Amino acid sequence: MSCPDDSVRGSVAMMGTRPLVSVVIPTHNRKAQLHRALTALTAQTFPLQDMEVLVVCDGCTDGTIEMFRHYGTPFALRVIRQAVQGPAEARNRGAAHAAGRLLLFLDDDIEPSPSLVESHSRAHGENSGRVVIGYLPPVVPSGRIDFFQIGLRNWWEGKFYAMRQPGYRFTYSDLLGGNFSLEAELFALVGGFDPSFRTREDYEFGMRLIKAGVDFFFAVDALGYHHDLTDLNRSLIRKYDEGKADVLMAKRHPELRPLLPLSCPRSFSFPGRIARALVFDWPPAGHVMIPALRQALRFLEWTRMRGLWGRLHRGLCAYWYWRGVAEISGSRSAGFRQKGSGCSPEEDSAIDIDLGEGLEAAEKKLDLERPPSVRIRLGGQFVGAIPSQPGAEPLRGAHLRPILLTKLSKRMLIALAMEDVFDTSFA
Predict the structure, then answer these.
(1) Do 277 and 395 belong together in one domain?
(2) If we measure between CA atoms, which residue out of 361, 367, 353, 352 comes closest to residue 398?
(3) pLDDT tens, 220-239?
(4) Is the CB of residue 397 less than 8 Å from the CB of residue 355?
């Protein structure tokens, strides 16, 4: 449902031509953060007449709608209102109303740098038909930095550091809904976001993109500052939602089961296994213990005992994760502990490459065939294998050299030495 005046703003000239980029921003009761994001969009280096912004208000009751009644922007702006349905449906609603060839999804707590839209557009111009993921450096809130904020910042920076490495192999979980873009036609072809997911909807969408053979690209200069308001309490609620989402993920994409915690309880730490037992075996004890342990976190923070704090925090996260799993599955076995689902990914068919024919030839073969896994030889010597990885993109030529220089470096040196000995002996 649109706002009373349809909330379309911008000059007549803007609205008379089709924009190149449609920026879609879902929001829920974060008026101040949204205002900051929109203000930053007015300072883009990208031609403002070639972009539109669609704000989807997902059950907003904090005055967000009223803010737009007298709100002017130098770009075309549309505000769409809907009842609370979650970010997946909000993004889908925005995409359905978008007119641009490119869809750029931003979260309302992202402050776009001046070059963000231009960087997304340029990345698509260099190579069409791919997903462009932008950089989201976290903004540390003013005041005292607690253990949780340190861990959250390290998680975000670690994620983007990995994506920046040469030959990085993207996976479904690299699609972060707060700053990414793709062609509108591709979004429709893959089917948009699944509204059944109230969290990790971006991961699920990323999985379908991977299955469709779409390449991911990390644009470090498509930068948006992430003013993440998540605190410890919100993070525990999110863990509960992640547990529910993983049950759905396992049903939608069974090949991901070996990677999900609900299928690999042994992957949890000892506190995590205790938390699982509290959920499924001793629920009354969990109801009593968890609030007390939550208070214990404050004490450990106050005494600066970060190691103990971390172990206890992981246990609490595991508890709420399993609570979410139990909410959907009803038991530790129903819905997700299927017979034969282990913790090791199943191998897919691999192709063979011989480095003796030249490294460039091997890279070209990978780019041509895009296999899930590969066996590598150097003449008569077996070097190693790059295994299949559920939820990961097929192998590309760019993946080969970094793997040879890191994971397979020792075997590569042995193979080179053996080939040299063989050639010398039979020369």
Answers:
(1) no
(2) 367
(3) 999 999 998 888 899 999 99
(4) no
The answer for residues whose C-beta is within 8 angstroms of residue 421's C-beta and 6 or more apart is none
Which strand (E) or helix (H) includes residue 65? Answer: helix 64-67
Tokens representing 406 are: 């890191």
Dihedral of the CA atoms 138, 144, 150, 153 (nearest 10)? 0
Residue 199 has which token pair? 């969290």
Does any domain span residue 366?
yes
DSSP run (H or E) holding 80: strand 76-82
118 shares its domain with 82: yes
Please give the single-letter amino acid code of residue 250.
A
Contacts of 288 (CB under 8 A, 6+ apart): none
Q: Which domain holds residue 78?
A: 12-228
* Contacting residues for 194 by C-beta, under 8 A, at least 6 apart: 88, 201, 204, 205, 252
Residues 123, 211 within the same domain: yes
Return left, alpha or beta for 261; rule: phi > 0 is left, psi -120 to 50 is alpha, else beta. Answer: alpha
On whether residue 3 sits in a domain, the answer given is: no
Per-residue confidence (pLDDT) for residue 330, from 0 to 100:
74
176 vs 347, which has greater pLDDT?
A: 176
Residues 201 and 285 in one domain: no
Residue 262: count of CB within 10 angstroms of its CB? 24
